[in-house]
Design goal:
By secondary structure, the chain is α/β, with parallel strands linked by helices. Helices cover 52% and strands 13% of the residues.
Length: 405
């Protein structure tokens, strides 16, 4: 699912960018077309922080985000980093006792507060003591109003931002009046950024992979993860009671099943389950290819003296086709997963290490690229017959695990 956020730069008197206002967009059409302000702001926050990335949108500069009355009262602002955002209080918000208390709290937490689109001093008097910036709409005000607002406020701690500045003349006039910041079509129209969001069930599976692959995880944590998902519980018990394990008695306890499997084997199994869940709208062949890569890379580990890195090699193979499964750039996905920099660099090709050599050998064998395979095999020193045996072993393992996931 594609999502969109527009950004419009905010400048100082030297015409240098000091931040960006982030704006709701439903598509590539550059205008606001939503009748629910709460939902629009929620989407801007979610898409900016979780999908596209604030670093992409603002490059480390401050993001100015509109907050409706409901969202201010729901305390959403206080979970966002105060050094990266400015909270814009919309002009239709009534400065009642609750809003004033919220402003006090946000100021204690070091947030920048911006009063948005005010044209008369009466509207903002109760909030002026909390404001860092007051925005004045140059399309809604005349010259006298723009001057009078600055004169009436008369405090050193408040700076004024002239928005919807459309000409050089308006910019010069605003600067002479005492405005500190500027925004509008004279400088730049909003620029739209697009990202791809994951459906919630795929995001849930990605989180499961993150959780179970943490460096230190206990049986109790694993049991809690399993019990949150009825499908996982069923599949685990089906697996542990299958012919693949051959236990004489029926296993009905989730915790006992985990103990019998062992943490390492369970983590591998649930990662496979999650991978299949994320790829339920993709061909099975793509998931099978990911699993074969994972097992083959792991099987090669002992032959290369990489006993301690076998799990890393498994994850390297498993995640190497994740971009095709999730329809997102592989770099974005790997940044969200708890894998080592060496593995990440091997998949992206930014590291020339032993992991990258194994990765290139696995891909060459999979695709029958004999010249590349010979070159890598000479480097790694594994007999050709052993390469074939380990690859067939990997296929058998995938066929078995695939039937019980």
């Amino acid at each position: 699912m594609d999502v969109y956020v527009a950004r419009q730069p905010i400048f100082n008197k030297q015409k240098k960018v000091i931040g960006y206002e982030l704006l709701y967009r439903s598509g590539l059409q550059n205008f606001f077309d939503h009748n629910d302000g709460d939902r629009a702001t929620s989407d801007v926050i979610t898409n900016s922080f979780s999908v596209i990335g604030l670093e992409v949108l603002t490059g480390g500069k401050r993001a100015f985000i509109n907050f409706t009355e409901n969202l201010l009262k729901s305390d959403i602002a206080s979970i966002l980093p105060p050094d990266l955002i400015a909270v814009e209080i919309l002009e239709d918000i009534r400065p009642d006792k609750e809003i004033i208390e919220i402003c006090k709290k946000l100021k204690r937490l070091s947030y920048i507060l911006v009063l948005d689109d005010f044209v008369a001093i009466e509207q903002i008097t109760p909030l002026i003591e909390f404001a860092d910036i007051i925005k004045v709409d140059f399309l809604k005000t005349n010259v006298d109003q723009r001057k009078q607002l600055i004169k009436d406020v008369g405090t050193d701690h408040v700076k004024f931002l002239a928005e919807k500045v459309e000409t050089e003349e308006e910019f010069s006039m605003a600067a002479e009046m005492g405005y500190s910041y500027f925004q509008g079509y004279f400088f730049s129209k909003p620029t739209i950024y697009k990202g791809r969001d994951l459906p919630s069930y795929k995001l849930n599976y990605l989180r499961i992979i993150q959780e179970v692959n943490q460096p230190e995880i206990s049986f109790n944590q694993l049991e809690a993860i399993i019990k949150q998902d009825l499908s996982l519980s069923y599949k685990l018990l089906r697996l542990i009671n299958s012919a693949a394990f051959g236990f004489n008695t029926k296993i009905t306890s989730i915790k006992y099943a985990l103990v019998l499997l062992g943490i390492k084997e369970f983590v591998r199994w649930i990662t496979v389950i999650a991978l299949r869940g994320m790829g339920d709208d993709k061909p099975d062949e793509l998931i099978v290819a990911s699993l074969i890569r994972a097992k083959y890379a792991e099987n090669l580990a002992p032959k290369l003296g990489l006993y301690e890195q076998a799990s890393d090699l498994f994850l390297m193979g498993l995640f190497s086709l994740m971009d095709a499964l999730l329809d997102r750039p592989i770099g974005e996905i790997l940044n969200e997963l708890p894998i080592s920099p060496a593995v990440k660099g091997a998949i992206l090709g930014t590291e020339k290490n032993i992991f990258r050599n194994v990765y290139e050998l696995v891909v060459a064998y999979e695709q029958g690229l004999m010249t590349q395979l010979d070159n890598k095999n000479k480097l790694l020193g594994i007999e050709e017959s052993e390469l074939a045996r380990l690859y067939i072993n990997s296929i058998h393992w995938v066929n078995q695990i695939f039937n019980y996931s």
